[in-house]
Write a structure and sequence with these properties.
By secondary structure, the protein is mainly beta. Helices cover 6% and strands 53% of the residues.
């Protein structure tokens, strides 16, 4: 079961820099989209249209991504009153891909304050042959704790949380 949790834990690590991200968090982040809109009064930047975020060998794709910055106290003297990124939301067939893992969902949110990534809607996490599925996946990026959830409850019901885990072999690294 620990391996199934690791499969689920690969979620959208680019959003939060999880230890599972397998990227150098100081490496440059390259964001491309059809359009970018910055709304300084709301401290947010919106990327729309085939958004792709690259960092080393990891890629995050979504139809839309919104970065929310912290609002600074009035009179702080720093430009537009916006600070560091506080929360990132990706929506519209979100894919996170590394050389070893793929996570797919309808939406993903990374909250910096709580160190959590939440992926919702038709979540599928794949690592090698192992696959985990559910309606909602929550990852704590500090502890790498993962919770896969489903709205369906009860034995024999369709669309419950499901994981297919293949036994490790001596050749696995």
């Amino acid at each position: 079961m620990k391996r199934a949790m690791a499969v689920a834990g690969v979620a959208v690590s680019l959003l939060g820099g999880s230890a599972l991200a397998q990227t150098n968090s100081s490496a440059p982040v390259d964001i491309s989209a059809d359009e970018q809109e910055t709304i300084s009064s709301q401290c947010k930047t919106i990327f729309r249209g085939a958004v792709e975020v690259l960092q080393e060998t990891s890629r995050l794709r979504a139809a839309k991504m919104t970065l929310y910055n912290q609002k600074k106290a009035k009179g702080s003297g720093d430009g537009n009153g916006c600070g560091n990124v506080d929360r990132v939301e990706a929506e519209g067939e979100v894919f996170y891909v590394t050389p070893k893992q793929v996570v797919r969902g309808d939406r993903a949110t990374y909250d910096y304050a709580s160190n959590t990534i939440v992926v919702i809607g038709n979540v599928v996490a794949v690592q090698g042959q192992d696959v985990a599925r559910g309606d909602r996946m929550v990852v704590n990026t500090k502890t790498n704790d993962v919770r896969m959830e489903s709205t369906v409850k009860g034995a024999g019901k369709k669309n419950r949380v499901r994981a297919v885990v293949y036994p490790s072999t001596a050749d696995d690294s």
